[in-house]
Structure formats: C-alpha cells, structure tokens
Specification:
This is BON domain-containing protein. The chain contains eight helices and seven strands. The protein is of the alpha/beta class and 222 residues long. The protein has one domain. α2 packs across α3 and α3 packs across α5. The longest helix has 21 residues. The termini are far apart.
Length: 222
C-alpha cells in the first residue's frame, strides 16, 4: 500500500511519525518533501480530521516498528493501515506464530480500538505480484479521484495477492457502493473486501466512543 508522509512543521506527534516513517521506508529526501506536502493538504480535508490523521499515522508507524524489531522479514511482508484507531493488517507471513505476533504488536500499541486481521499464512507472493498489487492501488486511487460523487481522500486501498481491501469513511451507502463498484472493475482484482465505515453509522459512532474513552484514559494518566 502507498504510505503517506507528513511535513515536519506540525505537532510533535506528527514529527515522531514522520521521522519513524522516513527511517522505516528508506525514502529519499526529495520524495519525503514532495509526499509530505501533498499529504498534509489531503489530511486536512479528510472526514476523520487532521489531528486524527496524525494520530493514526503515529500508530501505524509504532506498529510497524514493533513488527520490524520482532522480525524484519515479517515487516517486509505485512501492510498496516490505521483509520480512527482501527488497524487493518494484511499480507502473507510464513507461520501462524508470525501472524499472532503481528496482531499482538497492534494491541500493544497506543490508540488502537480494533484490529482487523487479514494476514494469511503461506509463501510470499514475490516481487511480480507485489508490483501488480501496487498498480491495483494506484488504479483505484485514480478512479476514485476522477469520480466527482466520491470524496476520494477518505478512502485507502490496500491490495494483497489480488485481494483489494478498503479502509476509510464513507459519506453514505451510495458513495460506498460506487467505491466498491470501481474496485471490482480494476484489472487483476480477484476479490474486494470492505472495512469502510459509513459516517453516521452505529458502528462508526461506537468507534468514536472508544477513541474518546482512550483519550480520556490518557488524559487521566498524564
């Protein structure tokens, strides 16, 4: 999945996430600056709000670091996506124990309210399949951006082995249906799995409630 970076001229939490992402991804200075500027603008327009985007990115980087510290090989095989404290894990790892460790890493990280475990156990797909997955994500990004009836900035595609996972926040069911239709029409997509929450749904309200409870506990402990 395409990772989004942030500029350094914003809060300390963001700076930490930015530094961690630079270290883990091995990005070039030019790539970091260009990607950071673009994402800072998109973050402000997202339904979850700029500060939540920052928090989610910090959570994502913290999980990636825990996985990397435990097993660098698993780090290269896994994708981590975080939206409003909901963590999507995807990819393929060699053993069940690797899968369990990845989930444990999520739950040991601050600001996590849910872990969606889509990690498979088996052989790595290889560079060719990984390249196709990247093309799938890029193609869906373009399709959603060009559809004026979709607020594309609220969606994050994550392809793994031809399965296209969707994370984000939909304005309503009609918008989500359009997103899923686009996803199914992307070349080489074998299956579409949506973990998107609708903006005013009871499920999202429960997510926001759990986020608020976590924030209250952190405030009480500080």
């Amino acid at each position: 999945m395409t990772r989004r970076l942030f500029p350094s001229a914003i809060p300390a939490t963001l700076a930490a996430a930015f530094a961690g992402m630079t270290l883990l991804s091995g990005c070039t200075p030019v790539g970091v600056v260009v990607g950071a500027g673009a994402v800072a603008g998109s973050a402000a327009m997202q339904e979850r709000g700029f500060q939540q985007v920052v928090t989610d990115k910090a959570t994502e980087v913290a999980i990636q670091k825990k996985v990397f510290d435990a097993d660098p090989a698993s780090f290269r095989r896994l994708e981590v996506t975080v939206v409003e404290g909901r963590v999507l894990l995807s990819g393929v790892v060699p053993t069940v124990d690797d899968r369990i460790r990845a989930v444990e890493a999520c739950w040991k990280t601050d600001d996590v309210v849910e872990v969606i475990n889509e990690v498979l156990v088996g052989e790595d797909a290889g560079m060719v399949d990984n390249a196709y997955d990247a093309k799938i994500e890029a193609a869906l990004d373009v399709d959603l951006t060009l559809d004026r009836e979709i607020n594309a900035v609220n969606y994050i595609p994550d392809a793994s082995g031809g399965t296209l996972y969707l994370m984000g926040i939909a304005q309503n069911q009609a918008e989500l249906d359009r997103v899923i239709a686009h996803a199914r029409n992307v070349e080489r997509v074998r299956r579409v799995v949506s973990h998107v929450q609708i903006k005013d749904s009871p499920e999202r309200q429960e997510t926001l409630k759990r986020l608020a409870e976590l924030a209250a506990k952190k405030d009480a402990g500080s």
